[in-house]
Write a structure and sequence with these properties.
Elements lengths: L8 E8 L2 E7 L9 H8 L9 E6 L6 E7 L4 E2 L3 H15 L3 E6 L2 E7 L5 E4 L28 E4 L3 E6 L8 H9 L9 E9 L2 E8 L3 E3 L3 H13 L6 E6 L2 E8 L2 E6 L2 E8 L2
Parallel strand pairs: 2-3, 4-6, 10-11, 12-14
Antiparallel strand pairs: 1-2, 1-17, 3-4, 4-5, 6-7, 7-8, 8-16, 9-10, 11-12, 12-13, 14-15, 15-16
Length: 271
């Protein structure tokens, strides 16, 4: 992490498969982080640029607490790729190979699985309509939307469409439209997934409050849960995204996500 200065706010830039983040560590210097700061830093022309902003703070019962902002300044309870990247960095700094990470989603567990790869337990999926949440009671397996997508909560809402050919999907148009579908009172992340095999999915993502992203950890978890519930795949699935590959395993204790991370650079933000 950059040295704390009186005139600026130190930050780190990280990414998981091109899904990029700015990370502010409030443990080293208290910061006034709010929606306005997130929007300013997210600007890819006049700021730093990111899909999500993650803020690290102290918490008495875990190794750290993470708070997430989307690029539009809205809060998100979960961000799988950012959690994995920060866990990898914290392990490298402390020498620990197991971490407890407090989030609005709950306490997530991170473990070192070898070769510098970190795996995160993103918790149990939420499959009841009120937990996703949806606007009213319905079957989450097949929503009454053209294309009958599946709704899944991973601390944030997800809407997964299964399609025959991803190349036919206008992600910008359809993602934006479905993000604001009235069935999702808190908006939703949108995935379009093509089944390659019983343990292999190809997927593209529209993230709530961001737009098209190269990857999304929580979206990958949600898509695998949706595919397994519909009998399209097993519970251990490789997910190929525009930015690379994640390995997802839906187990009895939650949904585990593993994949590469990158700490790109450190900087100081001067408003």
């Amino acid at each position: 992490m950059s040295k704390t200065t009186d005139n600026g706010l130190p930050f780190m830039k990280m990414h998981g498969l091109g899904n990029d983040f700015v990370v502010i560590d409030e443990r080293s210097k208290p910061a006034r982080v709010d929606a306005a700061l997130a929007v300013a830093m997210a600007d890819r022309h006049r700021g730093v640029g990111f899909d999500q902003l993650a803020v690290i703070s102290d918490t008495p019962d875990s190794d750290m607490r993470l708070t997430f902002y989307n690029a539009d300044g809205s809060l998100s309870a979960a961000c799988g790729n950012a959690t994995r990247c920060i866990a990898r960095w914290e392990m490298d700094c402390t020498g620990k190979d197991v971490l407890r990470i407090a989030t609005a989603r709950g306490v997530l567990h991170a473990i070192e699985i070898g070769g510098g790869v970190t795996s995160i337990n993103m918790g149990h999926p939420q499959t009841e309509w009120a937990d996703v949440p949806l606007s009213h009671e319905m079957d989450t397996l097949e929503l009454p939307i053209d294309g009958t997508p599946t709704a899944t909560g991973m601390g944030n809402p997800h809407c997964t469409f299964f399609v025959e050919d991803l190349n036919t999907i206008d992600l910008a148009r359809q993602g934006a439209a479905h993000e604001h579908d009235p069935l999702f009172p808190e908006r939703t992340n949108v995935q379009f997934a093509q089944i390659i095999g019983p343990d292999h999915i190809r997927m593209r993502v529209w993230e709530r409050g961001v737009g098209i992203t190269l990857a999304s950890g929580s979206s990958s978890c949600a898509a695998v849960v949706a595919a397994a519930r519909r009998g399209l795949t097993g519970h251990n699935v490789r997910v190929d995204l525009d930015g690379g590959t994640l390995d997802i395993a839906w187990r009895d204790d939650g949904v585990w996500m593993s994949g590469p991370t990158a700490h790109v650079f450190d900087g100081v933000w001067h408003p």
